[in-house]
Structure formats: C-alpha cells, structure tokens
Write a structure and sequence with these properties.
Elements (H helix, E strand, L loop, with lengths): L5 E3 L2 E6 L4 E8 L6 E4 L1 E8 L2 E8 L10 E6 L2 E6 L5 E13 L2 E10 L8 E3 L1 H4 L3 E3 L12 H8 L10 E6 L5 H12 L3 E6 L3 E4 L6 E4 L3 E2 L5 E4 L6 H13 L3 E2 L3 H8 L1 H10 L7 E2 L7 H7 L5 E5 L8 E4 L2 H13 L4 E5 L7 E8 L2 E9 L14 E4 L4 H13 L4 E8 L4 E7 L5 H7 L3 H12 L9
Parallel strand pairs: 1-12, 3-11, 4-10, 13-14, 13-18, 18-19
Antiparallel strand pairs: 2-3, 4-11, 5-6, 6-7, 8-9, 9-10, 15-16, 16-17, 20-23, 21-22, 21-23, 24-25, 24-27, 25-26, 27-28
Helix pairs in contact: 3-11, 4-5
Length: 461
C-alpha cells in the first residue's frame, strides 16, 4: 500500500460480488475513462417500475462455457468510443469491486468484449483515490491457479445442448481459432479442436471412417469448420472431403477451398463471372518475359507466387529491369507465377470484406505499413472500419458465390474510377476485422452453421 492506495500492475484479478462474479481478470488501463465488462444477451426490463438490465458474463478468457447470469439496475445509457474508434450505446450499472482486501463502488458499461483479450477493463474513474498503477508490472496482487478458478466456477459451466462441431485446423492458439471455439461454446454447442496433422482416413466403401491420434474414431459430428493453412491445403482438403463423404456438413467445402487456393484458376472463374480484376499475365517460357511485362502495362508491376497467401509470395518490381530479373529468377526455380498490373492509386490500401452466408457482415480498410506496398496486418499494417459502395458489396458477394464459399474474405482495391477484385480467401483471419469493429464475427460463422442445419436453440432454465 502507498498512502492507503493499492498498487496494481497492468492486469489484476478482482471480484464483482454484487453480480455473483467471484474472480475476473481485468485490464488496468488509466488511458480509458470508463470501465467495461464483457456481457452478452443484454436485455433491459422493468422491476417494480425501475429500469433494470439482465445479461450474461463469460468471466474467463478463451472460455465460452462458463456463464454467469447477472441482473442490475440501469443508471444510465451512454455512447462510448472504443479503443478501435467505433462508437456504441451502452448500458451503465453500478456495482462493488473487490480488490486486495478492499472494496468500493464503481460504474461499469456493458459491452461484448469477445474481440478484446480481457473480460473486464478497469478505467481511471474506478481507480480514483484507490489505486496506483505500475504499468510495467502485472499481477502484483497475485495470480490464481487453474484449480482455484475451477473451484469458483465449476458449477457455472454450461453443458452443451446444441450441435457437435469440429474445428479442423493446425494451431489451437491462433486468435481466429480460439474465437471460433469460444463463439460455439457461448451458443451452447460442443465444439472441439481437431488438429489436421493428427487426423487420418479409413477409405471403405461400406464404412468410411475418420481416425484421430491414439486410434480414436471421430463420430457424431454435425458440422466441421475447416481452417486450413496454405501449407496443409492438400491434406486438409482431403480430410474435409472425407468428412463430406461421411455425411458431415462442412462450412466451406473441400472443392471450394481447393479452387480458392489456386490463384490462376480462381481468377479465371472470377473473370468468367464478369468480375473486374487487375490485368494479369501468366506464362511458362522465359522467352515470353518481355511480352508478359508489356501485357500488364509495364513496370512497376506485381509478381505473385500461385501458392502464396496472406501477402507472402507477393513482390513489387519497380523497374523493367527488376521485373525481368524477378520473373526469370522465379521461372528458373520452376515456380508458377502471375504477373499483375500495379494499381498505384490504391496507395497501399485495400478493403477486406468478410462475407458469411451471402452477406457482407463487416468491411475494413487495411493500410500498408511504412515502406510496404501491400496492406497486411501481419506485416505491420493497420485496419479500420470502412463503408463500402454498393458496387463493392456486389463484387464481394458475387465473388464468394462464384467460388462456392459460405465464408470468405474478399480483398478489393479502389482503382481509377472503379473497384478491382484482388483475391478471395477461404480461411480469412478474424483478428483484424473483430479488433476494428468490436463485432462478434466468429458468432456469425456459428450462426451460418445453425441456419444451414436448421438448428433451433433450446430455451434453458
């Protein structure tokens, strides 16, 4: 203690006893004015003539099963600007916070914090007169073990009452995969991570099976969500195809994923649907290099590896000489490449439209990092919400439909006078778009499965 103030780090465990939350890890942020609590299913109601709000809290990070039902009087409704710059109207409640051996009353806004790591944000209003922050430290008040957390919350774990869903992917710790699992759990589904490398197939005309490490047979799945990294495309699509043969619904089919990964074939499909793309050339012989460069309007131009993704295998050649050297070097390695016109007026920006079940659920503008020509958040770029035009929306939806994808990230650039379609991604990342929008995009993917399987949520309680 310092002058009776609690010294805390950048994250600390606290409790909200009035609303039955014994422990919750909070992000301590003196840069934020108001405090916020992760809440879903927020419903206002009247209690003896006084406005109240009921809501559910998932108090643990990366856990959609543990659910606390809460109710509190509404003291206000305010428009709050999030760290991503988006503004939303939120209910405000007052409740007691317990920290160290002290407790006091604070105001908290209710919002869906799925896209934020911490389930609670402690702002400076709640700290006033009570807390000193050492931002270089964390958990100065102590950490809690899994066993202790389980003792607090084991009675609040929701038993799955919905679909059995498999997430077929390579890395369970990726943001996108964690969010999809969490979104499935929040909706009462039994969702399991299935590692691509640990699955293997039994081909049998009468009894085809999918096996998993240790000899387990994977049965009873209602749906599979394939999230296949480029290096695992062949094997991942073989597994997806086998699930389909077993009668399991897949959110994106193996054939749709396969054709989306072939950049040349996908561009051929897209232009056959009348969609606008940058002028692109493809050739095999080094003798055609000069003609290929002329075909796309000369340098500067883009050279793309057919199997590249997420900005990898995409190079800008700024001069004719550089373009010749680059193209011939790739050809000498027997690499298949596309040569594409460089759209200078895009100015290092592109638009990512996230399409689910034939609808654009959100769009972001991605801006390249300094010194980069390609907008990519994995390479230091930034993402902000953007409004798209009716034509851009039409292109995104038609492109997704052309590729037979249920879920896709469609990349568009604004050329001179009209938008141009760059690429359709069958496993689009969620971090950039959820971070910029604060929207539950992972939940939209789960809802698409529910809709296609005609699943109706059971009322519990």
């Amino acid at each position: 203690m310092n002058n009776n103030k609690i010294i805390v780090g950048s994250e600390e465990w606290c409790g909200l006893p009035q609303i039955n939350i014994p422990v919750i890890k909070s992000r301590v942020d003196s840069g934020a004015k108001t405090s916020a609590l992760h809440a879903v299913n927020i419903v206002p109601f009247n209690k003896e003539g006084i406005p109240w709000v009921s809501f559910e809290v998932h108090p643990l990070q990366n856990d959609g099963k543990t659910t606390i039902h809460c109710e509190a009087p509404i003291i206000d409704k305010r428009r709050v600007k999030s760290s991503s710059g988006t503004s939303e109207s939120r209910y405000v409640i007052r409740t007691i916070i317990a920290m160290a051996e002290d407790s006091w009353e604070i105001e908290v806004t209710l919002t869906n914090r799925d896209s934020m790591g911490y389930r609670m944000l402690l702002g400076r209003q709640a700290m006033s007169g009570k807390i000193l922050v050492d931002p270089q430290s964390s958990l100065l008040l102590g950490n809690l073990s899994r066993d202790i957390i389980h003792q607090f919350y084991h009675t609040y774990e929701k038993e799955p009452t919905g679909l059995k869903i498999g997430l077929l992917a390579s890395n369970p710790d990726l943001y996108s995969n964690r969010r999809i699992i969490e979104a499935g759990q929040e909706r009462g589904h039994d969702i399991e991570f299935l590692s691509i490398k640990d699955c293997y197939i039994k081909l049998d005309g009468k009894n085809p099976e999918m096996h998993y490490r240790g000899g387990r047979i994977l049965t009873g799945f209602d749906a599979i969500i394939p999230r296949i990294r480029p290096s695992a495309t062949f094997y991942g699509c073989a597994l997806t195809r086998h699930f389909e043969a077993m009668g399991v619904y897949t959110l994106n089919t193996a054939s749709a994923i396969t054709q989306s990964r072939d950049k040349l074939y996908s561009l051929q499909l897209l232009i056959n649907s009348g969609l606008p793309i940058p002028t692109t050339g493809f050739a095999n012989s080094p003798l055609d290099t000069d003609e290929l460069i002329k075909m796309v309007g000369g340098a500067p131009l883009i050279v793309k590896l057919l199997e590249g993704t997420q900005g990898k295998g995409v190079v800008l050649a700024e001069t004719k000489k550089a373009a010749e050297s680059l193209i011939n070097a790739f050809k000498s390695l027997r690499a298949n490449i596309l040569v594409q016109e460089f759209i200078k007026e895009a100015n290092g920006k592109d638009i990512r439209c996230f399409v689910v079940n034939g609808k654009v659920v959100e769009s972001i503008m991605r801006t390249a990092a300094p010194g980069e020509f390609r907008a990519n958040i994995h390479m230091g770029g930034t993402a902000t919400l953007t409004k798209i035009t009716a034509e851009e929306k039409r292109i995104a939806i038609q492109a997704t439909k052309t590729m037979n994808l249920k879920v896709a990230g469609v990349d568009i650039i604004r050329g001179q006078g009209s938008p141009l379609l760059l690429e359709v991604n069958s496993s689009p990342g969620l971090e950039g778009i959820e971070g910029a929008s604060n929207k539950d995009i992972a939940g939209k993917m789960i809802e698409a499965i529910e809709k296609d399987l005609k699943f109706k949520k059971k009322n519990i309680g």
